[in-house]
Amino acid sequence: MAHSTSGTSTPQEASARQEAVPHGDGGAGPGTPPPTRRGMLAVAAAAGVGLLAGCGEETARSASGAGPHDSTGAERSPSAEPSAHSPSPTPKPRPELPRGGRELSRYRLVGYCGLPGAAALGRLGTGDLDDRVRQIEKTARAYAADRAPQPVLELLATVANGTAGPDGTYRSRTSPDTIRRFHDAAKRHRALLLLNIQPGRASVLGEVKALREWLVHPDVGIALDPEWEMGPGEVPGATYGHTSGQEITDVARYLSRIVAEHDLPQKPLVFHQVAVSVVGDQSALRPQPGVVLIKSADGIGSPGMKRDTWRQLVKDQPEQVRTGFKLFYEEDTEGSRLMTPEEVLALRPRPDYVMFE
């Protein structure tokens, strides 16, 4: 899944640009090439992702304009208010997960990740979207075991760039139109939509808050990719980024408030971890009401190598944190093979989320 960073656009990248709002030069540029395949991934997407301008403004306007108005902004007539003698309205059903219920523990989450027009970032970015979701459904059944299968679309909503961009954050935001298209597909297929964040030098919590208009839905969660979270002077692709247990907890608290405000079912908060150093101070991880923390082991290699990475990452893991496991259709099979569903389900603790790139 490696690709050129020369600045020459592929047809897929050109297609993706049509779905995104322009953001600076957006390209990887002639800078220092990333040291590994993982270093190539985020830089590749820069040509196909645009700045998401004004995300959340509609929600903010609604909040500031609270009052006796309908969806068109017109003032309600006093006659529209229920009278003292009117029958009590039927209670509105509580929001549920796409396939029923309000707790994630009944499901095995199985998904693809990606971004339209950026094939190097995963299968979700290629082919017909509905066909891809049907493939996820089939794959999910193979990993369900003792649970119901729950398909997942993990869309890159914030993508780390190899160049600073106008605001110096080394990141781009996927356009609202693209997010809406994927959310519509998730609703059609009763799937979960996870919005993946590769923050570059931007604030992680700030990127999550920018997605609030989607997070108020019961079928939308967050996935963090902290290996792309850069400190001052760091550039995506040149080194692994890092986060902390406290920062993840801060995101969980924000999501928990949304869950409470909108009476939502449990919301997943996934954090992908490729090495022990990527997430520091895990003792500070504090699960929050209505939010399920999932640590996803993210590493490339043979089945034996991936099991070794797994053991390192789940060692001394806080009991409240659930587990996930990432498989790579191409990289894992270079000189080896993809792990089978039976091998993945034999991992302990058994993964709650299995994701393919």
Report on the structure:
The chain is α/β, with parallel strands linked by helices. The chain has a single domain (11-50, 100-356), classed as Alpha-Beta Barrel (TIM Barrel). Helices cover 27% and strands 18% of the residues. The protein has 10 helices and 11 strands. Strands 1-2-4-5-7-9-10-11 form an 8-stranded parallel beta barrel, surrounded by 5 helices. The chain has a two-stranded parallel sheet with strand order 6-8. The protein is globular. Residues 1-37 and 40-80 have low confidence and may be disordered. Residues 77-87 have a biased composition (Low complexity). This is Lipoprotein. Residues 1-42, 58-100 are annotated as: Disordered. Residues 1-15 have a biased composition (Polar residues).
Helical content class: 25-40%
Mean pLDDT: 82
Secondary structure class reads alpha/beta
CATH level 1 name:
Alpha Beta
Mind telling me which CATH architecture this is? Answer: Alpha-Beta Barrel
Which fold name fills CATH's third level, the topology? TIM Barrel
Work out the count of structural domains: 1
Major β-sheet profile: 8 strands, parallel, barrel
CA radius of gyration is 21 Å
Strand content: 15-25%
Order of helices and strands: HHHEHEEHEHHEEHEEEHEHE
CA-to-CA gap between the ends? 10 Å
Question: Shape, please?
Answer: globular
Strand order of the largest sheet: 1-2-4-5-7-9-10-11
Low-confidence stretches: 1-37, 40-80
Provide a count of the helices. Answer: 10
**Record field, number of beta strands:** 11
Protein name: Lipoprotein
